[in-house]
Amino acid sequence: MKRKRIAVIGAGAIGASVAAEISRSGLNVTVIDQWPEHVQAIRNKGLTVKMGEEVTRVHMPALHLCQLAETRDKFDIAMIGVKAYDTRWTAELIKSYLQPDALVVGLQNSLCDDEIAAAIGRNRTVGCVVELAAEIFDPGVLVRHTPPSKTWFGIGALDASQRDRLKEIAGLLGCGARVSILDNVTAAKWTKLIANAVILGPVGALGTPIARAFELPGMRSIAAEIGKEALAVAQACGYEVQPVFGLGLDELAGEPETVARKLVDTIIEHIGPSARSSVTQDHLKNRYSEVDMLNGLVARFGDLHGIATPYNKMIVELNHRIWHGQITPKEENLKMGNLLLNSHVAAGN
What we know:
Layout: E1 5-9, H1 13-24, E2 28-33, H2 36-45, E3 47-51, E4 54-58, E5 62-64, E6 75-80, H3 87-95, E7 98-106, H4 113-120, E8 125-131, E9 134-135, E10 141-144, E11 152-157, H5 166-173, E12 178-181, H6 185-206, H7 210-213, H8 219-236, H9 256-271, H10 278-284, H11 295-305, H12 310-323, H13 333-346
Parallel strand pairs: 1-2, 1-6, 2-5, 3-10, 6-7, 7-8, 11-12
Antiparallel strand pairs: 3-4, 8-11, 9-10
Helix pairs in contact: 3-4, 6-8, 6-10, 6-12, 8-9, 8-11, 11-12, 12-13
């Protein structure tokens, strides 16, 4: 029997981590990325994976985006790991290189499944919630903070007719993680969005490791307010908190502040003290972050449902100022955030 071909589009921190584990298991996986030096490094030397004191090297085929046109055999499964704002064009790009019954898995932050489904079809789209911290700054070198024992994926089909095929995806992701098959993956994606809004954007503006950020005076109070807003918006959209990161519903019950605190503490415990948020990494690389797809998305849905989201809007504005070069990521931005917050509250935002 011919081995199934698997594509991972976006060989950044998450995509490369997933591809490395699948490749280690002897499966046929190809990474596809838009960073030429990164692709060339993987092709020449393999992907170097650093996890704590352990350093390994994983060899697998790597293609630049423009080399997809040279691909003759179509892929049976594709996993998309690009930034959330690059979802739609990536899904449209890979569509021509898929088998007719191929499944596409969205590994990104934010709510990207509908964008994938619009290109590929709902019956071929698999939603995925990811708990995995890693980073890539040098071509061909992956630094992974979350070990496989603490890595978790929650997957779910957008179309109930495809639920039986989820076992195949669980088998792939389970090469280096715990995997749960979810009944309501969209609600779980909302729960992850709440966690991301609480952590990624706020920490990104401070430029510190995640654990350090939450030691700063006032940070947990701000995080709780961000979480309260995001939870209220999720509920207005018809979604309740779902089990994520291995937590049960009983552990995510209670007041919004309690839920936000539990999500923060669990993530810090799983990723370790030195992990940096993806938004922090983007600022360090001088590239556009996903804040508009995280806190910004909460704010846009809040406006749609008449829910004030001043804390989330403050985080968006703070990170926009960094992107436009008006300020740099630093701990003192916590004070500026409070000043911006007052203006949003005064404006009724």
